[in-house]
Fold:
Amino acid sequence: MKNRLVVTSGIAVMILSTATFAGPREDLLAQYAAAANARGFSAVRGQALHTQSFSGGKPDTPSCTTCHGKDTRGPGRAPSGKTIEPLAVSVTPTRYTDPAKVEKWFKRNCTEVLGRECTPQEKGDWLTFVITQ
Amino acid sequence: MRIPHRPLAIGLVTLAFSALILARAQAGDRHFFSPVADPLVKEECGGCHLAFPPSMLPARSWQRMMGELDNHFGDNASLDPATAEKIRSYLIANAGDAAGQRYSSKLLKGVVAGAAPQRITQLPKWVSEHRKVPEWEWRHKDVRSKANCVACHTAAEQGYYEE
Structure:
């Protein structure tokens, strides 16, 4: 009886703490981690993906930085000339809070740049990079 | 004797001022195209470029464009069918040839009946309005594309396309 109570309150505390600390960004990362077999994410790998030039996608958009700019804290620019808000969460706090939006743009932009969709590992790395910017 | 003059003067100035504002607002109306009011359309059609006012193209244009989003000027702008359908109805209901769109009919002047132009920037009227814009200006690093209306019409997001 006493043991049951300890276990139950333990679970309650765990649920409460996830409810307090996990936002949509953390949920997304957890989702990518599950799909990527939890190798762990790295901001350094994320940055490499962000700045690397690929040849598999469209020739005029070889890199994420083509549109988003080299500085994650500064604005980017779409090919049509429209300004894109900075990617860094420290500058644009509303970023990556709508999972459907994040997924939609990963799909579009990875295809555009790499010529294929990004893997959960790549998405997790990239997200870790911009969240810590 | 002097005292009554002041309220009268103030009244006249106020009147002249509001007439001026009224005149400006009316002049502005000629270049006004209601911006997209629907948050969904703004979000989905305003990420890569300005969410263009639906009144700038006829309904047939939007109908065709919404059916070819997977090849949208070389980009894949696909949406899930339910979202696409909502956006399509909004664009068509507010299209340039829908009832009550007085000013945009001017922009649509010269469009061949039944045609479904896909570019605002290729409408005959748009081309003639911009014929005086020099070539170097289109290529300027802050413009880049004719579709970047905001670069020159700074209040385009609010619907105003003045010089």
In short: Residues 2-21 of chain A form the longest helix (20 residues). Confidence is low (pLDDT under 50) at residues 9-20 of chain A. DSSP finds six helices and two strands in chain A.
